Request: fold
Amino acid sequence: MKGDNRIANRAARYLVWVPAALVAFYVAISWSGWRHQAAQAAGLGARMTCSCRYVEGRGLESCQEDLAGMPWMALVRYGDDPAARRVTASIPMMAERSAVLREGFGCLPDKP
Reply:
């Protein structure tokens, strides 16, 4: 009877740890790809929103609606610096990009 209880406990541990290990493995091998996609989304969001905001003269909220249906864009958070004419777009813990208005050139990436 005691041996059956040990087997049941061992099986219960495997039912918890095996799926958790598989999820951790999947996240580990996917993380760099997710970061790359997040960086692309943040860069696109920064440049498009900067152009919308400072070239077209629209409000930040109005500009965000233009990108709403695109992949990853629901995760992007925007910051606006009107004094520097800079828009920063970020996906928390993954990527941050900014774009600034350069007279005669439009909005360009501020930092890689």
Observations:
- The chain is about 55% helix and 20% strand.
- The chain has a mean pLDDT of 87.
- The first strand starts at residue 77 and ends at 81.
- The radius of gyration is 22 Å.
